[in-house]
Every structure is written in C-alpha cells, then in structure tokens.
Amino acid sequence: MTGVDVVVLGAGPIGLGIAWQCALRGCSVTVHHDGSLGAWHASAGMIAPVAEATFGESPLTALLVESTRRWPEFAAALGREIGYRECGSLMVGLTGDDHAEIQRSASYQESLGLPVERLSGAGLRSREPMLAPRVRGGAFAGIDAQADPGLLHSALLAACRAAGVRFQDTGAQRLAEVIDRRPAVVVVAAGTGTAALLDLPIHPVRGETLRIRLTEEPLRHMLRYMVRGIVDGRHVYLVPRAGGEIVIGATSSEETLTQPTAGGVHTLLRDAFMLLPELERAAFEGVRVGFRPGTPSNAPYLGELPPRDGVRIVVAAGHYRNGIALTPITATAIAELVTTGRAPAEITAFGPPSADPRGVAE
C-alpha cells in the first residue's frame, strides 16, 4: 500500500523512526510537532533487555530482545554516528542484600533464556577496576548496548528529510483538527501528550539524569561498561560515552516539577560515588529533567484503534523507560501496520485499549 497519506503526531525518536520507515515504504508522510523536547532529551540511551528484565514483564522483555537484535541494522541504515555501542551491562550490588537482589533477578533472567554471567565482587572489579572494593557481587549482561539519544534524534531527522518527510510546526493540537484534513492514517506517537489526544492511560513519570565528565588521563578511558547498581536498596545507573562523559540516572517520581531538585542530584551523586569513588574527580556538567510516558503495565501501546470519520488511527506511545531501546522494532512494526493494515506478530500483545485484536484496518 504505497502512496498512503500519513500524518505522524510526535517528533521524538519513536515518531521520527515511524515517519522514516513509512516514507521508505512509499508513503507520503508529514510529521506534526510542537517544538518541545520529549523524554528522549533526558534519556541515557540504554538498550538493555537483560538489565531491564523485570518480574512479570516477560512479553515486554521479549519485545526488548527482538528490538535489540534489530539495532545494528537500524543504526547502520541511518548512516551517521549515533553513539551505538554493544558495551554490555554490569549489574552491581554494594551490600549483601543488594547482591541478593541481583541474584534473584539473575535467576529470573536465566529462566527466560537471557544470557547473564554471575560475578563475585572480585570478578566485577576484574572487568571494571574503578568499582569500589566493598562491592559484594553482581552479574554481566553482554548483549546490552547503548545509543546517544541526541545523536540518534539528529540522525533520524536527517534520514526523514532525505526520504521526503515533511515537517509542520503546529503547536498544541486536537486530534479532531488533524482528522478534518482527511489523511488516510494518523499515527499518534506523542509521548506523554498521547493521553490528551487519545484518552489513553498514559501518565508522566518524572526523572532526573546528570552529566559528568572525566577529563584526567587515564580515568577518562577506564569506565568501559554500563553499570546498573543497587546501593542500599536504591537503584542507580551509569552510562559511559565517548570523550569521558558519563550519564547518571535516574530518579523516578510522580511530581510535576520541571526544574532539577537538590535532593535528586545529591542522591544520584552519592550512590554513584559509593559504587565508583573515582568519579568524585569528574567535572559536573549539568542536570536534565524529563517525563517518561508510563502505562499501567509499563509496556507501550502499539496498534490500531477504531477509525474516526474514515481515518485510521494508529498509536505508538507509552514506552516508559524503553523508548530508545524500542525505537527499531516500533518504527518497523508500525510502518508495516500502516502499509499493510495488519499488525505484525511481535506487537500484537501490546494493542491499545479498545483496539481491534486482529490489528486489521477496515
């Protein structure tokens, strides 16, 4: 089904990825955006199907694994540097109780067939010498990876423009206004803004991330892996990037404050320093605040809603903390749904409320 007139609402990585893939399939695509920065701006860019595997979320884990498998081809097709690295995750427990929690998670990950290597404290430090001596133990997930969200966003913008996607700065919109223009398909990929457009149970989850930079040699080259730590029951992650930058995250709350808080910065730095004391020598570069689009199940809504006034309505939103990780599979699967009228098997478990379970367009 080529030549389909498609409007995509949302210009984060999810919306841009869908627009790009639809254009590559011959659709006429316009992206509507309001110019605001979405959750991706504060994201660390982790692609972590193993470290993110959570009890009771096995369908989401399977989706993450499949999206991770597609990431190398997706990154190569963009043709630009996006900071994609298959670096793996070290899951690190500071205390005995923290280590026990990681061991329970490792047992669950192994039950799903995920590759995870259990490590003692000494084993962790042999892989990452910067870790504190008191770290008790943890595990290694070799398939976990990362991408730089800012570079990814820029690359997707360039890819969309090269594929002929048009952009329209619309400000705040109502879905009815878009439907009145009679496109064949409207794809709603507006992050937390999707709730107002489609009345779906998507809510903002506030998070803060920090940027620090190691400038001294040889420290700036020493942190090689992503670190997912538990410190006295609190969770913290560290994502090393080129040039010595490290992203530390993330707080999580239902608050609506748009400014960073001193408490959030303090908690993240304290826990990061307890795991990696040498980071106290890093330069502090800033704080970012974002609002993740959460859902009751922590999984995204991917599928088709009943048409409105003859216009097909497709939703791709609610990715919560996995927007970057799920960009390849969301983009390709939703583009297939748009162009064929049928949802591919990998996303049928994530249909939105009130969706036709067949995923078939009328």
Automatic annotation (TrEMBL):
Pathway: Cofactor biosynthesis; thiamine diphosphate biosynthesis. Keywords: Oxidoreductase, Thiamine biosynthesis. Gene3D superfamilies: D-Amino Acid Oxidase, subunit A, domain 2, FAD/NAD(P)-binding domain. Transmembrane segments: none annotated. GO terms for molecular function: flavin adenine dinucleotide binding; glycine oxidase activity. GO terms for cellular component: cytoplasm. The keyword Oxidoreductase applies. One of its GO terms (biological process) is thiamine diphosphate biosynthetic process. Its EC number is 1.4.3.19. It comes from the Bacteria. It holds the Pfam family DAO. Signal peptide: none annotated. Residues 5-337 form the FAD dependent oxidoreductase domain. InterPro entries: FAD-dep_OxRdtase (IPR006076), FAD/NAD-bd_sf (IPR036188), Gly_oxidase_ThiO (IPR012727). It catalyses: glycine + O2 + H2O = glyoxylate + H2O2 + NH4(+). NCBIfam families: thiamin_ThiO. This is glycine oxidase. It comes from Allocatelliglobosispora scoriae.
